[in-house]
Predict the structure.
Amino acid sequence: MSRHHHLFRRVHRSLVPLAAVPLLLTSLSGSLYGALSAQGIEAFWLMKLHTGNFGLLNLQPWYSSILALLTLFVIGSGLGLLLGRRRGTPASPPF
């Protein structure tokens, strides 16, 4: 494995979990809000989380853009690793 590919893998492994946290929070809060609303339970605080309002830290004006950039980063990083491996470098174990 080339040094560049190894460095790219290290960066990918350290940054993607951090980028995935807001994406997971948004998807889980939206799904849970929908499920609770269908049962007649009002949980508006979940919708606030879903849209980026975290109490003292209100990211609502930029949250959609942040999520879009993080999604593109995760996809681009994964595709970069996948395509880099297909160019002739052997597959390494996932651990």
